[in-house]
Amino acid sequence: YTILTDLDPAIIEVSQPSQVKLLLGSPMEKGNGELKKGDLLKTGQLISTAKDVIAISPVTGTVSELYGWTGDFGRNYTAVTIDVAKDEDFDEQFSEIAKELTLETAIKYLSDVPGNPPLKKFKHPDVDIHTIIVNGMDEDIFVTTNQYVVQSRLKALKSGIEAVGKFTGINSIVLVAPERLAGMASTAGIEAKVIDTQYPSAQPNMIIKNLFGQVVPAGKKPENLGYCFMSAEAVASIGTAVTTGKIPTDKIVTLIKKDGSTTLVSVRIGTPVSEVFKAG
Question: For residues 230 and 233, what is the distance between their CA atoms, to the nearest angstrom?
Answer without folding.
Answer: 8
